[in-house]
């Protein structure tokens, strides 16, 4: 529910120790999530609980109340200017980025100057499209008119390199016009710039005429394109391939199976998360919206806590979830709440209050039509095991939901518009919510508590592959890569896939999108299972069973668990292993020495003989599918 560090643990412990038996009994008798949060939130001990001492004590997680500091922004800008003098354009670009992130929203002219400075650094680093983008931004912010000749001339030079000559003509014309307003530029320099610009115009115009006035090439789009699912989609589950169907039975619930034979390597699902949240430790280096690394970041106008990789991601965030989370983000981080609790809140802040008020009319009904990843009702109806939970479990999660409801009130969400003023520290001297929001506490408290329960079993970690410098070995490019946990998300279609300790698919990420591909041949009708964490090659059956029971509340009955397959480190290179194939059901595995000359091997369990020749032939035919695991381990063949 929450990390060890953070004030939520203190809040939880205080509330838990303050509840008397009558209050606990009253809570235990409540039958809905909404009633649980409405009851807890209205208790006198919630209204009297003061967060300020714990928040002020916690130095990590950003400044609260949220504030941008002009002196800090100017310091970064000055340091960037010094790096320019040293000729270190990379450091200069990074420092100008920090200055931009910390620059207060009202300082539009200073922000425009910082963007212009960064455009110069990017130009020197040959990042021409990015330099053009910063020039556009600084002009939109009202870059000083007497300095505009600089950015117009820089724009023209960038466009020339990009062979966008028609646009370059306009930029050189703007350069000449703007020189009339360059009041601080001495006459000699002004004349030289004007002459150079006119000369370039003459050359460009002649070249364009001779070439027949061709159109400029389109700007280079460096945004990673959305991955596309090859072939046909499943009409009922559009994120999945037509090779996947979703079935249901009483034991397994909903699960994925193959609607046709699937070959190894096929892409079976590409899905954007319904909701996802970046880990706090990557907030300064990765895009808050798509989780991509941000070497040339854009900031939030009102807080210094997040960055974005593009105008598009910035706009999505600022017009939805971040508009509400901006003033409360330090409280989320300082609380120490887990990433799943933050996702539970994000699932609300990313849509409007009115959206959820409309949805509540039929939340318990599964939507008719295609199963859409962006439909909250599909998340709401995922497994939550509410009926199996103890009252103490529900009470613990309700404490977090009460805290998150308080944050919604502070954010302005209940008033249907983001707050325009800083949160005053006195506003967190109570965990109670104003009486006028009673209905909102019941509705959204119930939804958040439901989200927390659903996410326990259905959230996924989002990984980024971080690679060291590549090296060439025997004409093959190799690198040591690590998968690093950078975000958490919930993928509604993938959440329908069951677990196996020997999964038939692997998943990886492209930005926020999850991509699922087969790692083995799967016959029509067979289950298509993913892996929830423990895998038979690395973890013993006992450990796997305990982990899955503790985290996901089920007993795994996959084939490796039923047959107690060995780990890779338990396999011996001196013998092979074959399943008993005696013609009668037998779960035994037959160890066969690698120098064995007999083809008929007796099973020690059923006392029948198995012909291993078939397995050896299969091994010979399919050996190209066996991965090099760095040793000579043998596998179980059938």
Rg calc: 31 Å
Large-scale geometry: globular
Q: Tell how many strands the DSSP assignment holds.
A: 17
Structural class: alpha+beta
What kind of sheet is the major sheet? Answer: 3 strands, antiparallel
Helical element count? 23
Low-confidence spans: 624-638
Number of domains: 4
Order of the strands making up the biggest sheet: 3-12-11
**What is the averaged pLDDT score?**
91
Oligomer: single chain
InterPro entries: SET-MYND_domain_protein, SET_dom, SET_dom_sf, SMYD4_SET, TPR-like_helical_dom_sf
GO molecular function: histone deacetylase binding; N-methyltransferase activity; protein methyltransferase activity; S-adenosylmethionine-dependent methyltransferase activity
Pfam family, one: SET
Organism: Pieris macdunnoughi
Description:
The radius of gyration is 31 Å and the shape is globular. The protein is of the alpha+beta class and 638 residues long. It folds into four domains: 1-61 and 277-458, no CATH class; 70-211, Tetratricopeptide repeat domain (Serine Threonine Protein Phosphatase 5, Tetratricopeptide repeat, Alpha Horseshoe); 461-569, SET domain (Beta-clip-like); 572-627, no CATH class. It has a three-stranded antiparallel β-sheet, with no helix packed on it. A three-stranded antiparallel β-sheet has the order 4-10-7. Strands 14-13-17 form a three-stranded mixed β-sheet. The protein has 23 helices and 17 strands. It has helices at residues 7-18, 21-28, 33-41, 44-47, 52-57, 70-86, 89-102, 108-124, 128-140, 148-161, 165-178, 187-210, 311-318, 321-325, 329-335, 339-349, 353-359, 376-380, 391-411, 438-458, 541-552, 559-563, 613-621; strands at 244-249, 253-258, 267-271, 275-278, 298-299, 307-308, 459-467, 471-473, 476-478, 481-490, 505-510, 513-518, 575-579, 589-593, 600-602, 609-611, 636-637. Helices cover 41% and strands 13% of the residues. The chain starts with 6 loop residues before the first helix and ends with a strand. Helix 3 packs across helix 20 (438-458) and helix 6 runs antiparallel to helix 7 (89-102). Mean pLDDT is 91; it is low at 624-638. Keywords: Methyltransferase, S-adenosyl-L-methionine, Transferase. One of its GO terms (molecular function) is histone deacetylase binding. This is SET domain-containing protein. It comes from Pieris macdunnoughi. Residues 242-533 form the SET domain.
